[in-house]
Amino acid sequence: MTTMNWLQEVEKRKDDLISTTQGFLRIKSLLDPSTAREGAPFGEGIREALDFVLEQCKQAGMTVKDVGGYAGHAEFGQGSELIGVLSHVDVVPEGDGWTSPPYAAEIVDGKIVARGAIDDKGPTIAAIFAAKLVKESGLPLSKRVRLIFGTDEESGWQCVKTYFETEEMPTMGFTPDADFPLIYAEKGLTDLTVLQTHEAFLGQQLPSADSPAAQLLELASGRRMNMVPDKAEARLLPMGMGAEELIQAYEAYLNDSGMKGKAECSNGHVLLHMEGVSVHGMDPGKGVNAGTELIHFLGTLTLDARADQFVRFTEQYLYRQHYGEALGISHHDEEMGPLTLNTGVIQYEADGDALFQLNIRYPHSLPFEKWSAIFKERIAQAAFVFEVVEHLRPHRVDPNHPLVTTLQRVYTEQTGLEAGIIAIGGATYGRSLDVGVAFGPLFPGRPDCAHQRDEYILIDDLIKATAIYAQAIYELAK
Ligand SMILES: [Zn+2]
């Protein structure tokens, strides 16, 4: 059998690898609707980046195809089965505070610094060079290899949706767009709107409250379902209690609870502000939800009938209920961990809607149909209904699947490190493949600089990743 020293082969092409990566990073491949056109649905920058990678592959003798500017691919090898390597050429906006220009791709301390360096343009070039190495090696392959380039991974994934409407789904594949060693399982992701209209409230014909201390006029917290909100604001109309008294009660509450916030009087109303701690919605227990914490205070007051129901509903089902316990949907999976629930947005208007926007992430052993039926029944008791805004089913490849075991072996052979496999609560590009995992490029212990200022890839890591991908492509396709 032939043994290739993949790392040595990459080292020989090091200068070319670096300069090609730099050239690619200098294209500002940012979503730009103002230059969108037929064949360039996400604008000229992304179009240019797609052309760049297709040209690289074409020069290497691969068969390339452009799928309407939504995505493209480059193929080589032979056989009925297809190995896919899926990456993306678009980037997120650069933001401020860079110490070297975000599209200059300067080399600083052994790093290439640029927007997209680690996510995902550096790894895209690594995959292309890896494929070129396999192709040039002349080693026999029994499968076809296809590099697939997406163009709007950072926004709506319209690229892969459109691409797979007409193009072949790989037998199996990986995406170099997350972490090493390997991510084989991802939770299901659900964004829900939970709504009680004013009519639905009235339809319950609840008795009106006895001498309320105040009426809740409105409450607002959060803007994104997948973030724990760090701000909340409520407006109260003093009734049984005076404005000063309400303010004092709130201040005393803040004092006792150690929460941060303030109260003020404005036009005869009392405004309450609460501050929390924002974290990603995949792990809501690590943050402090300003919205539900503010409502917890409102629970100490006697409010008008609608607010009373709204507050009790929140207290019972959402206040510090990060795992859906009181809703009866909590579930812990050995492999993938617990169902998590984040209350990302809360909006209440006395004469309008009361709504929550929730991000629920669930493991594969708990079917969506099962938990959503329980959820629906629970919230109906308070005249709430829900609507699914977005739903991605759980994604998992059997840990014994040859895709997983082969990549684990390759990783260990190339790095000398153990290749544990990872289940996550987030979503990687890997889930757009039927049988797909995320495989690199970020090595364990490296800080994740994706989407941040001074994003970079270490040149040593770029080289190492290229060698890993080369062996991976070969082993999967041989
Ligand atoms: Zn990415």
Automatic annotation (TrEMBL):
Keywords: Dipeptidase, Hydrolase, Metal-binding, Metalloprotease, Protease, Zinc. Its cofactor is Zn(2+). One of its GO terms (biological process) is proteolysis. InterPro entries: ArgE/DapE_CS (IPR001261), Bact_exopeptidase_dim_dom (IPR036264), M20A_pepV-rel (IPR010964), Peptidase_M20 (IPR002933), Peptidase_M20_dimer (IPR011650), Peptidase_M20A (IPR050072). The keyword Transmembrane does not apply. It comes from the Bacteria. GO terms for molecular function: acetylornithine deacetylase activity; dipeptidase activity; metallopeptidase activity; zinc ion binding. Residues 271-348 form the Peptidase M20 dimerisation domain. Gene3D superfamilies: 3.30.70.360, Zn peptidases. PANTHER family: ACETYLORNITHINE DEACETYLASE, N-ACETYL-L-CITRULLINE DEACETYLASE. Belongs to the peptidase M20A family. This is Peptidase. It comes from Brevibacillus borstelensis AK1.
